[in-house]
Design a protein that fits this description.
CATH class: Alpha Beta
Strand content: 5-15%
Radius of gyration: 17 Å
Shape: globular
CATH superfamily: Ureohydrolase domain
CATH topology: Arginase, Chain A
Structural class: alpha/beta
Number of domains: 1
Number of strands: 8
Largest sheet: 8 strands, parallel
CATH architecture: 3-Layer(aba) Sandwich
Distance between the termini: 11 Å
Order of helices and strands: EHEHEHEHEHEHEHEH
Number of helices: 8
Strand order of the largest sheet: 2-1-3-8-7-4-5-6
Length: about 270
């Protein structure tokens, strides 16, 4: 089945000073997607409230999660979600996990495994994967949490101490950039025992020399060729259950064009 693209310009989960540039990034990507296969998802204009929790702008994150979940209802084919911040992955990953035996390949410089208690910023985009694993704000927990043995972190190289402790305690597979090959990714996914894979791409998995429009660049990341080979290996190992491309925050709407070629090649690899 051909993919359906869901464009979700959520910025409220981000802790970056460039958070609102995520709107520009999502809209720039949307302009190059096939309109007949693209569904825009409305995002609240305002920041929202923390709802008395330790998560900034929680009410808006909930609203976007619910709007995207509703937009996906009844549609066939693997969803490809275009963010926005990493929080846009809540609904599609939860849907995929509820519908079958999935592995989650989390491609990003950061593992996003903080809890509200361990986060130093209270920004939800650093808590997304921990929430999908069943620990986080009650109002955002999925009905079918992922199991840690179904998660593969790849290209990850910037972990808080609390995140490293969580990885170690739960035996989550982590493939650092220096260890990443198509073979290591395929082997890690096969070891999960899953029947399909959801591929999450935070664009900061790339080395900063490869892309400008990201809010939290980390050195020693992947080349574009490495990322595309990794995505191809994941899809060869398991059928694609869905994918997300997140955290494109160009310095200005005009500068978005500088990175679009790179991003479209990533989307092409996911949907080929």
């Amino acid at each position: 089945m051909p993919a359906t693209f869901f464009v979700v310009p959520q910025w409220q989960g981000s802790g970056s000073s460039r958070a609102m540039r995520l709107i520009d990034g999502a809209e720039a990507i949307r302009g190059d997607l096939p309109s007949a296969a693209t569904v825009p998802v409305e995002v609240p204009a305002g920041a929202g409230s923390d709802e008395g929790t330790m998560v900034n702008r929680l009410s808006s994150v909930i609203a976007v999660r619910d709007a995207l979940d509703g937009a996906m209802a009844g549609r066939t084919g693997p969803p490809v979600v275009i963010g926005g911040d990493c929080g846009v992955e809540l609904a599609p990953v939860a849907r995929a996990a509820a519908g079958g035996s999935i592995a989650l390949l989390w491609l990003g410089a950061h593992p996003d495994l903080n809890s509200p208690e361990t986060s130093t910023t209270s920004a939800f985009h650093g808590m997304v994967l921990r929430t999908l694993l069943g620990e986080g704000p009650d109002s955002l927990l999925p009905g079918t949490p992922l199991s840690p043995d179904r998660v593969v972190l790849a290209g990850t190289r910037a972990l808080d101490d609390a995140e490293q402790d969580y990885v170690d305690a739960n035996g989550i597979r982590l493939i650092a950039p220096s260890e990443l090959t198509p073979e290591s990714v395929a082997a890690a996914l096969a070891a999960t025992g899953a029947e399909s894979v959801y591929v999450h791409v935070d664009l900061d998995v790339l080395d900063p020399a490869e892309i400008d429009g990201i809010g939290f660049p980390e050195p020693f990341g992947l080349t574009l060729a490495q990322l595309i080979a990794t995505i191809t290996a994941a899809k060869d190992a398991l059928p694609l259950a869905g994918a997300g491309v997140t955290e494109f925050a160009p310095a200005s709407p005009e500068s978005a064009a500088d990175d679009l070629g790179t991003i479209l090649r990533i989307i092409g690899a996911l949907t080929a």
